[in-house]
Amino acid sequence: MPVYEFQCTKEGTVSEEIVHMDTKEIVEMTMSSDIAHRFWFGMVNLTKALTRKEMVAKGPIPKVLKLLPAIKPAYAMYPQYLDANGFEQYNITKAYKPPTA
Which of 57, 79, 94, 100 has the fewest CB atoms within 10 Å of its CB? Predict the structure, then answer.
């Protein structure tokens, strides 16, 4: 199965490149789009989501948990990507505005 790498530039263009043709996935994660969206904002506790079956992992869970430190920098990139590509309405860090007194 091919592995695709997607890169987004500051200009808003996205390039797609096949990185490895012979790479096999180690873990397959399945979840709703709402859970995935909240995950990329850093608002989902992976261990709890797996326990509650909000996320289903096929493969070795310890390897998934070891990847978390490598994924954390993407939490800051995801809102920037949404804003830069015209999806500001999906940026949940900006969506809530507390009422003023």
Answer: 100
